[in-house]
Design a protein that fits this description.
The complex is a heterodimer of chains A (about 70) and B (about 160).
Chain A (H helix, E strand, L loop, with lengths): L1 H13 L23 H14 L17
Chain B lengths: L1 H18 L13 E3 L6 E3 L7 E7 L4 H17 L4 E7 L4 H10 L5 E4 L4 H6 L6 E5 L5 E6 L5 H14 L1
Helix pairs in contact in B: 2-5
Classes of the chains: A mainly alpha (about 70), B alpha/beta (about 160).
Chain lengths: ~70, ~160
């Protein structure tokens, strides 16, 4: 059973394919982005961290007032 | 079991071994002949031997390519009479995307196309755009990855230096 699992794992790993730099056309499309609007996402993050009094927890220093 | 472990390691590291090959400074530029984007005729890089050539791998979805095109066009306009040429290789999946890009940013230099991925693979492209500055003797003198606003000025000096050789 253990051998079968290892073989299966090896076979699965051989199927891994790196997306080459010239193949990123589809990935660069707007609908493929994690955030559809970077500015809006940043603003929402700012509001969220200030309301939760956790400003700085997202990588940026600052107070909890949401004004910086 | 040890054999299986070896197989596992080979499977993990094989892709990085494949990526390690490519064209580097000091190498002779590989023979490259590709169809032009605009028509069915082909252009060969070998046909430009004797000139200083900037081989530019680009795609319509690549942001820095949008920045590089006007600058390369300007450089070619200025230094073309002295023997400078641009050989732009489009790697878009769909030809219409590349044509739309060129309608927006028209250029007068050679624009060829390879959607198969063979040419960028042979040249060992690691990012978009990647440019290869090739001397008059066909030897790669500089590999330029990415493109920033001030890169054109530095590139111009490098081209002038190569044109003097």
């Amino acid at each position: 059973m253990k051998y079968a699992f290892t073989l299966l794992l090896i076979t699965a790993l051989c199927g891994c394919e790196t997306v080459q730099p010239w193949e990123r056309g589809s990935l660069s499309k707007e609908e493929m982005a994690w955030q559809s609007d970077v500015m809006e996402s940043s603003l929402q993050n700012q509001m969220y961290t200030s309301k939760e009094a956790s400003s700085g927890g997202n990588g940026a220093a600052g107070g909890g007032c949401g004004c910086n | 079991m040890r054999f299986l472990h070896c197989c596992l390691l080979v499977c993990l590291y094989l892709p990085s071994l494949v990526l390690a090959t490519g064209v580097a400074v000091g190498d002779t530029a590989p023979a490259t002949q590709l169809p032009n984007l605009a028509d069915n005729s082909t252009t060969s890089l070998h046909g430009l031997k004797g000139k200083v050539v900037y081989v530019d791998f680009w795609a319509s979805w690549c942001g820095p390519c949008r920045l590089s095109f006007p600058q390369l066009e300007q450089l070619r306009g200025e230094l073309g009479p002295q023997g400078f040429e641009v050989f732009a290789i489009n790697v878009d999946e769909f030809e219409k995307d590349a044509l739309a890009f060129l309608r927006e940013i028209p250029v007068s230099y050679h624009v060829v196309r390879d959607a198969s991925g063979d040419t960028p693979r042979n040249w060992g492209i690691l990012g978009m755009p990647t440019g290869f500055l090739i001397g008059r003797n066909g030897v790669v003198r500089k590999v330029h990855q990415g493109y920033r606003k001030n890169d054109g000025a530095a590139l111009r000096l490098e081209i002038i230096e190569l044109l003097r050789e």
